[in-house]
Design goal:
Layout: H1 13-29, E1 34-39, H2 45-53, E2 57-60, H3 66-79, E3 102-108, H4 116-129, E4 130-140, E5 142-144, E6 147-148, H5 151-163, E7 170-171, H6 172-181, E8 184-186, E9 190-192, E10 196-203
Parallel strand pairs: 1-2, 1-3, 3-4, 5-7
Antiparallel strand pairs: 4-10, 5-6, 8-10, 9-10
């Protein structure tokens, strides 16, 4: 028997594979309570998984794609979680993010499938809206020292750039420097399964005015 939302709920095998390792990091770095904005939430599987595991957090998913937002809303309705809001149609390049002050921003597997301007807008917007000590969490593949960390990542990077030359696996050092320029300081990178990394940035006081 299927529910009325089953046809709208999209599924991502990678989201199912990486949700537990990511959750293990989020448990350590996110506050026990507060408001979290998830950018580029995709299918919505992560949003409901993390929100169920971290019930003290007010989880705000978002995605520019209408189909993704429909999937997110269907997952939220299916799971019946009170701490997940309706998804926003959020364009980071726009000045209005439709959210108040945030305790954390979570962005998984986005910066390599978007132009660099999106990463710049992500850091600028997060710095402006995060409370002092607030967390920006990024997950995905990176180059280190200008080199790929695995042949599979190099092949993935070529595939991405063949689809859109503005996409691609980013240099970790460049991303960390960009964060620092906005007052978002990165702790030691955390190695994750499948040649990915978690980058955890914290906002220093008065960072938005740097």
């Amino acid at each position: 028997m299927t529910d009325s939302y089953s046809t709208l709920r999209q599924r991502s095998p990678s989201a199912e594979r990486n949700r537990e390792p990511i959750l293990a990091v989020l448990r350590d770095v996110l506050p026990a309570s507060g408001r979290v904005l998830e950018i580029a939430s995709g299918t919505g599987q992560h949003a409901v998984w993390f929100a169920r595991a971290l019930p003290g957090l007010d989880w705000q998913p978002s995605d520019l794609d209408a189909g993704a937002r429909a999937s997110i809303a269907a997952w939220v309705a299916h799971e019946k979680l009170a701490n997940v809001r309706e998804p926003l149609a959020l364009d980071m390049h726009q000045p209005d993010w439709q959210v108040p002050a945030l305790d954390a921003v979570v962005c998984i597997n986005m910066i390599h499938i978007s132009p660099w301007s999106a990463t710049e807008a992500l850091f600028a917007g997060a710095s402006e809206r995060l409370v002092d000590g607030g967390v920006l969490y990024l997950y995905g593949p990176y180059r280190r020292g200008g080199a790929h960390t695995a042949p599979s990542n190099a092949a993935f990077d070529e595939q991405l750039q063949s689809r859109d030359p503005s996409w691609g696996v980013r240099d970790m050092e460049t991303v960390i420097e960009l964060g620092a320029s906005h007052g978002l300081l990165c702790a030691e990178p955390i190695a994750m399964p499948a040649n990915n990394f978690s980058l955890v940035f914290r906002k220093r006081p008065d960072a938005a005015r740097v």
